[in-house]
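Risk register update: the risk of archive-format incompatibility is retired. Evidence:
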Amino acid sequence: MDASTRTGERSGADARKPVVVGVDGSPAALRAVRWAVTEVIARPAPLRLVLVLPDIDKPAFRPGGGKHRAALGTLAAARRAALSHWSQAGVTEPLDLTDEVVWGQADRVLTTLSRDAAWVALGCADIGFFSHMVLGSTALAVSRDAYCPVALVRRAEIESGPVLVVVNAWYTAKPALLAGFRAARARGDAVVVARIWQGRTWTGAFHYGGRVPVVPDAQIAHTLRDFPTVTVRPVTVVGDAVETIAYMSAGASLIVIGHDVNRDHPERMAPVTRELIRHAPCPVLLMPDSPDAADRSARSARSSSLPLTR
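Archived output:
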């Protein structure tokens, strides 16, 4: 595959924003590296591998110390995995790849790096008892606070299936719809758009003055106009959205969802979003749902700190 056959879509300032992958030596992190390489092949961007060491003032953590040398070895293994996946894809041009050790708290470092990233990829453990109970604190915090899309990469339980796009309101739906359509086009899969009904229930009282209850067909069709080969099936979810979306996710190969804000507590994720990033049986791509994502993140209980490089 050469440059003429790759379907890059980034342009302008976004064209050189890197895809940042958090690396920690785990099989899940290596899976995230390979996932990121596949994304870079489809939509060209630099690839940046980052390993975060605790900022501890002890010899082992300083440059040249035992922990630092181990981190460099972990990065080297991740780099080899990225280059191998790139080569196996048949791409003839060189991969724009960098790697580095950064000192700090992992979630804060990755959140800060997300300001200037195209997106961030993190590996997550496969579904099991423990991962059903708790998602890694770093992945959860970065998912909540990042300034760019975040991919939580799990091994999908099915090899092929539709891309499930979950949307809540017309004014936050566009980023998730675009990301879902791009992913489906690259994979050759269909898209299921799950529109969560925000109006009254069938038996509840109607309240005037509320927001538009569902993403309209016209908006989906308008967003789809640049993806003529993608097949889309809209579904309206009424009632228990958490349970219904969890059921629908079982047949998906990828889930795309916006960061739906809990209006009373901006530092918290809405129930459907939280359920999917913790329990989904496939990779999840979490999209910032509005231009003020940074403001929302700033209101969260966490304060970001600048990463340290040495």
